[in-house]
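re: that chain from earlier
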Amino acid sequence: MKITRIDCHVLLEPGYDIGATSSAQDDIVVEIHTDEGLTGIGESDVNPWIARACIVAPGTHTMGLGLAQMLIGADPLDVEALWEKLYVGSAMNAEPSFTRSERSTWRSTICGAKPSGSRATSCSVVPYGRP
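^ sequence. v structure.
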């Protein structure tokens, strides 16, 4: 059995309030289809637009792949192999972006670094995640 298609459905309460702290007003439902006609359905209450982007985004290298890109063609019953594939294949997608953004912010505001694209900073050492 192989995964053939992944469909993402973003559900959003028509009167949602962006100022609310409620995950009850949005959701994502994901359908994973196989070549044998079986469909698995899952959902998550994380930001559905971010989840969808992580699923459908094309990759640019082996540690920055979209989830669908890694799942299409895989055996849905080999859960351990899928977990490993998803873990390694998406290793550079979220956490490193956050820490790099944090470091860039610290460098530019605290250390007086040059704009993005320049490697020069006025700090001699910038430890991971801190000025």
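The CA atoms of residues 58 and 69 lie 7 Å apart.
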